[in-house]
């Protein structure tokens, strides 16, 4: 009877050890997951500042495939050589904590400008601003699509199109002047004709 109990204890310990191997992680592995998650978060923060809001604009089929591939690579890199449930939970918690931290920091105007891209005027009085399109990597086809979805029948009826911090394209039609306060932080807003702006 004693022998059976001892055998049961050994089997239980072996089973628990194998279970922990698949769902848990050691302190060293946890440190690796934490470091990789922070590094990749900061890397993508810097890359979105370099590339601009283009990465958030409505995606094409190719963009979706690229996003899936990047998600797979980043997820694997964050969780280490042998992905486990514990590593995934730690990576998600770290990402949420970083998002909360940078959200709090962005309340300060100087850090807000560093963390976030500024909104950009892309179309002024129906004319494309080619230099801004090049800088933001937005194509004329994307602008034309946004004009159509806004229900505007002609580009000449567009007062302004602004690429927002979020990657959204805001379309303003002619008829009512745009309040100057809405354009205060918009790059190239000075290129809008005076008659389209309400001071």
From TrEMBL:
Q: Which InterPro entries match?
A: DUF421 (IPR007353), UPF0702_alpha/beta_dom_sf (IPR023090)
Report the locations given in the UniProt record: Cell membrane
Q: Mark the transmembrane ranges.
A: 20-47, 59-79, 85-105
Q: Which family does it belong to?
A: Belongs to the UPF0702 family.
Q: Which GO terms describe its cellular component?
A: plasma membrane
Name the record gives this protein:
DUF421 domain-containing protein
Which residues belong to any copy of the YetF C-terminal domain?
Answer: 112-176
Entries under Gene3D superfamilies matching the protein? bsu07140 like domains (3.30.240.20)
Q: Does the keyword Aminoacyl-tRNA synthetase apply?
A: no
Name the Pfam families for this protein. DUF421
């Amino acid at each position: 009877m004693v022998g059976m109990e001892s055998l049961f204890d050994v089997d239980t310990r072996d089973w628990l050890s194998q279970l922990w191997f698949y769902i848990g992680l050691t302190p060293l592995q946890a440190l690796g997951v934490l470091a990789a998650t922070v590094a990749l978060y900061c890397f993508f923060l810097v890359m979105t500042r370099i590339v601009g809001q283009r990465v958030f604009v409505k995606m094409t089929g190719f963009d979706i495939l690229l996003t899936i591939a990047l998600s797979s690579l980043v997820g694997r890199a964050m969780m280490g050589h042998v992905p486990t449930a514990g590593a995934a939970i730690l990576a998600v918690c770290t990402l949420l904590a970083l998002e909360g931290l940078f959200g709090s920091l962005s309340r300060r105007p100087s850090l807000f400008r560093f963390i976030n891209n500024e909104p950009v005027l892309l179309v002024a009085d129906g004319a494309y601003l080619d230099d801004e399109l090049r800088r933001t990597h937005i194509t004329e086809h994307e602008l034309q699509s946004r004009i159509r979805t806004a229900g505007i029948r002609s580009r000449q009826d567009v007062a302004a199109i602004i690429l927002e911090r979020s990657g959204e394209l805001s379309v303003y039609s002619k008829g009512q002047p745009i309040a100057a306060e809405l354009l205060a932080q918009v790059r190239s807003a000075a290129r809008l004709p005076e008659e389209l702006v309400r001071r």
